[in-house]
Structures are given as structure tokens and as C-alpha cells.
Amino acid sequence: MKLDQFLKWQNLVSSGGEAKLFIKSGSVKVNGEIETRRGRKLNRGDKVMFLKNELIFE
């Protein structure tokens, strides 16, 4: 699953456009590193930090 889709699926953003803005602004970390590619593929066990939410992709 792509990072922007994951944020939508978790109901953290209301649209893909909103996800894109947050990702491009550097507000999202994957495994502790800022990720600015909205199409980044997540692998099982990846930790996604968004605002104050920490989620694990399974």
C-alpha cells in the first residue's frame, strides 16, 4: 500500500490531496525518517509517524 493511501485508510486525512500536502511538507515519518514521497510503498512492520499518531503497517 502506498503512503498516501495508508493515511486515508487510517482516517488521518480526508482526501488524497490532503495526504499529499502533509507528506510534501515533511510532516510524515516512516521508520523514523521524514518521507516526502507520497507513493512510497509501505512494507509490513513499517512505522508511520503522522502528527502525534504512530501506526504500524501490517
Overall description:
Helix content is 28%, strand content 22%. The protein contains two helices and four strands, in the order ααββββ. The chain has helices at residues 3-9, 16-24; strands at residues 28-30, 33-34, 47-50, 53-56. It has a four-stranded antiparallel beta sheet, with no helix packed on it. β1 and β2 (33-34) form a beta hairpin. α1 packs across α2. It is globular.
What is the fold's blueprint, element by element?
Blueprint: H1 3-9, H2 16-24, E1 28-30, E2 33-34, E3 47-50, E4 53-56
Antiparallel strand pairs: 1-2, 1-3, 3-4
What features would you highlight for this structure?
alpha+beta; Structural Genomics Hypothetical 15.5 Kd Protein In mrcA-pckA Intergenic Region, Chain A; 2 helices; 28% helix
Percent helix among the residues? Answer: 25-40%
**Structural class of the helices, strands and pairings?**
alpha+beta
Query: What is the global morphology?
Result: globular
State the low-pLDDT regions, or none. Answer: none
Q: What's the structural domain tally?
A: 1
Q: What's the gyration radius in Å? A: 10 Å
Major sheet summary line = 4 strands, antiparallel
Classified by CATH, the class is Alpha Beta
Oligomer: single chain
Average pLDDT level: 96
Distance between the termini: 10 Å
Number of strands: 4
Approximately how much beta-strand content do the residues carry? 15-25%
Strand order of the largest sheet: 2-1-3-4
User: Mind telling me the CATH superfamily name?
Assistant: RNA-binding S4 domain
- State the helix count: 2
